[in-house]
Design brief:
The structure is a single chain. The protein has about 230 residues and is an alpha/beta fold. It contains eight helices and twelve strands.
Length: about 230
C-alpha cells in the first residue's frame, strides 16, 4: 500500500510539479490549495505525511500545522518556505513541524526528506524511559513527574530528549542530533537545537538532580546525580 501524502500548496504550477514527482516515486497524493482546505482534507481523509507551504491564503501553513497537531500528534509535517529567518524556522518546529525545506528546492531532496520522515515515524509502542523523578512515555511524547506535573512534548522535543536519555552520562554529538532530526548541520539547525535544549531544561526543573550539560563545541549530556 502506498504512503499517502497531503500536499498543501497554493501555487498551482508548483503543486502540480510536486504532485507528479511524488506519484512517480510511488506515493499517493491528495492536494489542497490553502491551509483551510488542507485542514479540512486531513480531518476527512488523514495522511501518512503532510507537505505544506507556509505562506498561504485563508490559513497559513503554521496555523494549519498547529490545528492538525490537536488532531494528530504523530503525523510528520514538512514545511516548504521561502522564509530564512531563524525565528520563523523555530516557530515552525515549535508548532509541531518535523522538517523544513527552503524554496527553491530540488525534487530529489524533497523525496529524500519525505522518505526519512516516514522511516522515523514508527515508534516503539512500549518504550518508557525513567529520568530521575520523571517518566518519559516516548510514543505519546508525555513527560510526567512523580508528583503529578506533566507536559506534552512536541515531536522535536521528544526526539531530542530520547537521544539524551538513552545516552545518559555520555555526550551526544550536536551534529549527530541535527542530522538525526533535520538531516542537516547548519547555523539555523544549531540555533534551533540550542533553543529546544533550553526548553527541555525548563521541563525537567522539578528534579534538581537532573542536568543537561553543554559540552562546548561538542554536544550535550544528560546527567542524573541520584
Amino acid at each position: 500500500m502506498s504512503d499517502r501524502i497531503l500536499l498543501v500548496e497554493d501555487d498551482s504550477t508548483l503543486a502540480m510539479i510536486v504532485s507528479e514527482t511524488l506519484q512517480r516515486n510511488g506515493f499517493e497524493v491528495n492536494m489542497a490549495v490553502n491551509g483551510e482546505d488542507g485542514l479540512h482534507k486531513f480531518s476527512l481523509c488523514g495522511a501518512d505525511l503532510i507537505v505544506a507551504d507556509v505562506m498561504m491564503p485563508k490559513l497559513d501553513g503554521f496555523e494549519m500545522g498547529r490545528r492538525i497537531r490537536q488532531i494528530d500528534r504523530h503525523v510528520p509535517i514538512l514545511f516548504l518556505t521561502a522564509r530564512s529567518e531563524i525565528e520563523d524556522i523555530v516557530e515552525g518546529f515549535e508548532l509541531g513541524g518535523n522538517d523544513y525545506l527552503k524554496k527553491p528546492f530540488k525534487m530529489l531532496e524533497l523525496i529524500v526528506r519525505i522518505k526519512a520522515l516516514l522511516r522515523r515515524n514508527t515508534p516503539d509502542d512500549s518504550e518508557w524511559l525513567a529520568i530521575g523523578e520523571y517518566t518519559f512515555d516516548v510514543p505519546t511524547q508525555r513527560l510526567e513527574h512523580s508528583q503529578g506535573n506533566s507536559v506534552q512534548l512536541t515531536i522535536i522535543e521528544a526526539r531530542i530528549l530520547r537521544e539524551l536519555a538513552i545516552n545518559r552520562g555520555n555526550t551526544v554529538d550536536a551534529s549527530m542530533l541535527m542530522q538525526l532530526i533535520w538531516q542537516r548541520d547548519d547555523p539555523y539547525s544549531r540555533n534551533s537545537l540550542h533553543g529546544f535544549i533550553h526548553k527541555l531544561r525548563y521541563y525537567l526543573r522539578h528534579d534538581s538532580s537532573i542536568s543537561i550539560l553543554n559540552q562546548r563545541g561538542i554536544g550535550y549530556m544528560l546527567t542524573v546525580t541520584k
